[in-house]
Amino acid sequence: MNCSLASIEFSAVLIHVIKIVVLVFVVILPMVAYSVWAERKVSAIIQDRVGPNRVGIPFTKISLAGLGQPIADGVKFLLKEDLTPGHVNKLYFWLAPALTMVPAILTCAVLPFGSELFGEKMVVADLNVGPLFIFAIASLSVYGIVLAGWSSNSKYPFLGGIRSSSQMISYEISLGLSLVPVLLIFGELNLSTIVEEQSKNGWLLLPLWGEGAVWNGGWDRFFLFFPACIAFIVFTTSIFAETNRLPFDLPECETELVAGYHTEYSSMKFALFFLGEYAAMIIGSGLIVTLFLGGWSLPFGWDAGLMKMAGNPEQVPWWLGLMHIATFLGKVIAFIIFFIWVRWTLPRFRYDQLMKLGWIVFFELALLNIFITAGILILTRP
Amino acid sequence: MPIVVQRPRLTIAEKCYFPAIMKGLRITLGHAIRILLRKKKVTMQYPEAKWDDHLPEHYRGAPALVTDEHDRERCVSCQLCEFICPPRAITIIPEEIPAGDEWQKVEKRPKIFDIDMIRCIYCGMCEEVCPEQAIFLRKDYAITGVSREEMVHDKKKLYEIGGRREGLVNKWNELK
Fold first, then answer.
1. In chain B, which residues have their Cβ closer than 8 Å to the Cβ of A346?
2. Of A84, A117, A350, B108, which has the fewest CB atoms closer than 10 Å, so is most exposed?
């Protein structure tokens, strides 16, 4: 392979760098910060409180419904004393926060967050193995938690780390298996192609237009709706467990383990765990939206209509591209609010219930679902 | 006779959590909507709005010393409050009332009377134990300061908060 420097096109590299920087620093990180704000605000209104409503623009009395709070929190985290306890294993203690944050951000590389903008595909890496890449990287984040628990050299973090690793390993199985039916239905592992297919022929959970609609002969999609729903429920619940959110936040369950694996952490290192958890939640929502709810596509086949209106069938006009990005972000935000809503509704599972649910219910359900889907596919798509 | 509590037999709907989860989500959503539509108001925006006018008579705020109707300090330095105070917030150094003073027959008065408001737990034991009814818990609750020294209320400050209180104890009155 000829891989000299000259063969790399500079403009292509630049475009990719711009995409990565914009996606990570303009979209993901502010979203992480503001999902913390949303978490506090939604929890407040659910519990009949007001929530953060003071912090606004500094040195003025403008409060903007507390929108300055995440920035103030961030500054606070940066300025706090970064304490490394004397009894910890320094190398791994320092490595662990990075190992939770990095995989969470890495996985967003394959998520298509828009169709096209000025002829450029709105995805950092258009891999042909999107979901596999996500699983491969996302499961690395368990190392961050295990290392944090172990290197802290203290009982509570240790127990939290053990719990977290066993939980993540058990739910990874149902996470992967529940996705197989979806991949069978689309016959495709490229997330961008999956979204385009849903844009044309109906979302997986809303097959009401194009070839997916019953009245257009989409009987296969009609019957596949049921296994798709099972896959959706199993996948969503597993994402909850995978991101250590309530009702599955056993690793950091305050009442038993103080704070779980990050008990010994302070300042920005603690914030990295915190941000990693929220980033994982955002990526998880993005994945669910991409696979089940049509990603960036507008419902009811409006994409095709708008493309026709724009005239040129080959190139997506810039306003439609922006609209697609907004649609994707809107769906993701709606899903994050759902995550928060569930967190402030349900109590925590007991640990044996959690394991039972993972191994006895979801694992079997996901496995069965594969066979149901395959059977329906054989019968309806000869 | 031992009582055996039967475990409830759960139906399938109960076993699969799902209806219960939906019910819970509906309840929390109901609360969220009620707050969003401002049909319910529960939180008071503290520094702007205060509950001060509604404080009950028995409210236990900062303890303070009072003078009687002759502007005599009621405290006779018996130090009962100092001994009863659970967090030991009160420090009293008594002194003798010099001869020639109008109230010489009272014999003692506090030279120093300090209450450390960092320690005070607003329990009201001092008020209860005081035989002279010289110390009272007032309705002040926002006691703040930027240093530890500032949080110690000395005699002057205590009388400033307490002010004058007439009636109740007539033991040292001229009339008696």
1. 21, 24
2. A350
Is B80 contained in some domain? yes
Residue (of A206, A170, A215, A191) closest to A353 by Cα position:
A170
Chain B interface, best mutation among A39, A45, A349, A354, by max B CB count within 10 A: A45
Chain A, window 48-67: residues with a beta carbon less than 8 angstroms from a chain B beta carbon: 48-50
B143: in domain: yes
Distance from CA of B21 to the nearest CA of A (A): 7
Residues B95 and B155 in one domain: yes
User: Among partner residues B21, B25, B35, which is closest to A45 by beta-carbon distance?
Assistant: B35
pLDDT digits (tens, 9 = 90+) for A317-338: 778 888 888 888 898 899 889 9
- Cis omega before residue A247 (within 30°)? yes
Q: Residue A76: what pLDDT?
A: 86
Single pTM value for the model: 0.77
Burial (CB count <10 Å: 0-12, 13-18, 19+), residue A140: middle
| Chain A residues whose beta carbon lies within 8 Å of the beta carbon of residue B36 | 45
What's the complex ipTM? 0.73
What's the domain count of chain A? 1
Which residues form the domain of B25? 11-42
- Same domain for B33 and B110, yes or no, is no
